[in-house]
Design goal:
single chain; alpha/beta; Rossmann fold; UDP-galactose 4-epimerase, domain 1; 2 domains; seven-stranded parallel sheet; three-stranded mixed sheet; 17% strand; binds nicotinamide-adenine-dinucleotide
Length: 326
C-alpha cells in the first residue's frame, strides 16, 4: 500500500519528487498527458499517459493501483500565456483539478499534496518575507487558477490536504539524469545557462532600476530537491493525521537577478551575453518566503544553497543539451 498517484509527474518538479518518493520507499504512479512533460523524466514507476480531467481514466488508475495519496503537480505554468488565454488556465489548473479532486475523493484517496505557488500572493504590500497570513491577491490568471484550485481542494471534506506554495524552483539532480527542461523556458537559471552555452542568443533581463541594492529584482530560489523532500514531509504529515494547511516553500533568502547571473557565470567560467529591458508589469521588486510554518509543521528545512542550485543546473544542462528543445 505504498502507491502514490503523481499527476504531472513527467514534469520538472514532479520527476524530482518521484525520485524522492522512490528513495523514501514509495511507488510513484505517474499520470501525465506529456503536454509539457517528458517520457525520459519518468524513471521510478509506471507512466499512464492521459488527461487528469479524464474521470474514467483516473477511476481506472485508482482501481488498479489503490494509491494511498495523491501529489498533484499537473498544471500549465506560464504566467504570460495565462494573461493571453485565461480560459486555458482556468480550465486546466482549476476546473480539471477540481474534477480530479472530486474523482479522487470518490475513489477513496484520503490525502493530497498540491503544488501551489507564491503567485497566490500577488504583489506584496511590504518588503518582509511573505507569510501564509499575507493577503491572497493574485495579479494574473495563473495565480488565480492556482488559488481557486487550493479552495476546491479544501472543499473536499473526505481529503486532508497540504497546499505547498513554492517560490522559485531551480536546480537539478544530474546524478539521476533529471533537470529543468521547460518549453518555452521562462525561468532565470536555465535561461542564463542556455545563453551561456550558446543555445539562446542572449539572456533577457527585465528591470535594472528596482529599489534593491543592485537594481535587479530579488527572488527566493529553492533547490528542486528541497521541494521534493518537502513533498515527502507533507505526505507523511498527512498520513499521520495532519490537518489541512497551506504553507510556503522557500529558503527565506533573497537573491537578486544580478547575483544569480554572477553565480552562474562563475560556474560556467565565462560571461553570458545579456540584453536589458524595462521592468515587466506585475513583477514586484522582492519576493521572499517566510518558511517558518513548513519548518514547524512539516519538520522540514531546505538544505541547498544558491551555489549548489547553480552548479547542479549547469551540470545537468551540459550533460543533456539535446533535451532542452528550443
Ligand atoms: N517551476 C516553478 O518554479 C513553480 C513555482 C510555483 C509553482 N509551481 C507549480 O508546480 C507544478 C509543477 O511545475 P513544473 O515546473 O514541474 O511544470 P512542468 O510543466 O514541468 O510540469 C507540469 C506537468 O503537468 C503535465 N500536465 C499539464 N496539464 C495536464 C493535464 N491536464 N493532465 C495530465 N498532465 C498534465 C505536463 O505535461 C507536465 O509534465 C505546477 O502545478 C506549477 O504550477 C511551479
Amino acid at each position: 500500500m505504498n502507491n502514490i498517484l503523481l499527476t504531472g509527474g513527467a514534469g520538472y518538479i514532479g520527476s524530482h519528487t518521484a525520485l524522492a518518493l522512490h528513495k523514501a520507499g514509495y511507488q510513484p504512479i505517474v499520470l501525465d498527458d506529456l503536454s509539457h512533460g517528458h517520457e525520459w523524466a519518468v524513471k521510478y514507476g509506471p507512466l499512464v499517459r492521459g488527461d487528469m480531467g479524464d474521470v474514467e481514466l483516473v477511476r481506472s488508475i485508482c482501481k488498479e493501483y489503490q494509491p494511498v495519496a495523491m501529489i498533484h503537480f499537473a498544471a500549465f505554468i506560464e504566467v504570460s500565456e495565462s494573461v493571453r488565454d485565461p480560459t486555458k488556465y482556468m480550465n486546466n489548473n482549476y476546473r480539471k483539478a477540481a474534477k480530479l479532486f472530486e474523482t479522487a475523493e470518490s475513489e477513496g484517496i484520503r490525502h493530497t499534496v498540491f503544488s501551489s505557488t507564491a503567485a497566490v500572493y500577488g504583489t506584496p504590500q511590504h518588503d518582509n518575507p511573505i507569510t501564509e497570513n499575507d493577503r491572497l491577491a493574485p495579479i494574473n490568471p495563473y495565480g488565480e487558477s492556482k488559488l481557486a484550485a487550493e479552495k476546491a481542494l479544501r472543499e473536499r471534506v473526505g481529503i486532508s490536504s497540504v497546499a505547498l506554495r513554492y517560490f522559485n524552483a531551480a536546480g537539478a539532480a544530474p546524478e539521476s539524469g533529471l533537470g529543468e527542461a521547460h518549453d518555452p523556458e521562462t525561468h532565470l537559471i536555465p535561461n542564463i545557462i542556455l545563453a551561456g552555452l550558446g543555445r539562446k542568443p542572449a539572456l533577457n533581463i527585465f528591470g535594472a532600476d528596482y529599489p534593491t541594492p543592485d537594481g535587479t529584482a530579488i527572488r527566493d530560489y529553492i533547490h528542486v530537491l528541497d521541494l521534493a523532500s518537502a513533498h515527502i514531509a507533507a505526505l507523511e504529515y498527512l498520513l499521520t493525521g495532519g490537518k489541512n494547511i497551506a504553507c510556503n516553500l522557500g529558503t527565506g533568502n533573497g537573491n537578486s537577478v544580478k547575483s544569480v547571473i554572477s553565480a552562474a557565470e562563475k560556474e560556467l567560467g565565462h560571461e553570458v551575453p545579456k540584453n536589458f529591458h524595462p521592468r515587466r508589469a506585475g513583477d514586484p521588486p522582492r519576493l521572499v518566503a517566510d518558511n517558518a510554518l513548513a519548518k514547524k509543521l512539516l519538520n522540514w528545512s531546505p538544505r541547498h544553497n544558491l551555489s549548489e542550485i547553480v552548479s547542479s543546473a549547469v551540470a545537468w544542462h551540459k550533460q543533456n543539451m539535446e533535451k532542452t528543445n528550443l
